[in-house]
Give the backbone structure.
Amino acid sequence: MHFRSSATIDRWSFPDSTLTGICMLPADSSMTRHHQASGIEADTLRNEPKTDISFSSFYEESALSMRITALWVGILLVAITPFYDRLLLQVPESFVAFSRWMQFGVQVPPLLLALFCSWHPSLRRWSAPVTLSAVMLTAMGLSAQHIVGKMHDFHVPHDFSVIALSACLLCSRIRVSYMLPWITMSVLVITSAQMYSADFSSAALYDAASLWMMFGFSVLAAQTIERATYENWRQRLMLESQAAHDGLTSLPNRRHFDRTMISLMRQASREGKNISLMIMDVDHFKLYNDRYGHPAGDECLRRIASCMRDAMRRPNDFCARVGGEEFAAVWFDARSDIAPALADQMRASVADLNIEHLSAVGTSVVTCSAGFAQVCAIGGEEAAEAAVSELYEQADRALYEAKRAGRNRMAHFGETAKKRSGAALWPMI
């Protein structure tokens, strides 16, 4: 694998307001998905569109096995009905043909289709609507059997249809807000048809009321399950976000920085893109703490972090706190003639905050020193970790050069080709 490295850096930052939610994505997934999984703040975990979409995906995928099991059970129950009818209920022969047509012509095929969509990975995006449609057809079929059965002096329990809909609410793990309008419409049609077939008798009204009570309790139970799942999911995302972010500045911490840099390097290797890195250290920060106190030092770090975060514009740009008073900024696929200017502009913006520092040497405000390096990765994802380590070492070496040169400046790493672990690092032109 070959890497061309330079004295320029690009920066990359996690948008703190991004959700996705899906914190279960692998580290080497695409950058958009990675940010959605990583940059989660507690105050964004509300019913916002991105949050809602992420939870819907999690909610359905986490209970996919339950949905598949429920569909299997439904198919088996419908399939064994003929034996149940023949052995126990003594179904009239005049009703058998219609019953079998409803069972195997209307009910079983949609359920099998829903099962296949839930099982096959490429069709799972259709699983929810197909499953809902299949259950609605099954419920309508059961209701039709009840009505036609009365015409043949045979009683098919009318509550089976609502039981099927309630099972869908409780076992399919499809969002209640998505299912409720359709299932409510189905229950309304079913009860209206059954009451009409019974001439709106008092017994029919009583049966309809009991069906709606059963349906109402099922909706409440489904909403309770969904809400509990959402709260657990939300708490888990918050904990994962806290583990990945610095408590003082809310920037990604060193652990998260290392993991993400490896992911970025792999992506850069696949796509032939470059990565720029700037390591920035606050000048004379110990003297600042000694003079103004640690609370003021904490506030100083928070202001610097906010300044860096505000400078991040592109989705794949990111900054992190990698040490006590040390920060890192990363740019993904930034032009080699622009990235150094962006890095130096970020460093200079700290001085523009005009944070008083009377103990500093040669200045009266807080300043920073920075080291910058850039690498273009071409092929070889397996050496991403070594390449990240090398890039960080180059930027860190440039940082010390900046400090030796008098601080309050940025130095570029510009060594000629060097070999390490079978990878070549070349200065970019």
User: Anything to note?
Assistant: The chain has two domains: 54-236, 254-427. Residues 272 and 378 are 5 Å apart (CA to CA). The chain has a mean pLDDT of 76.
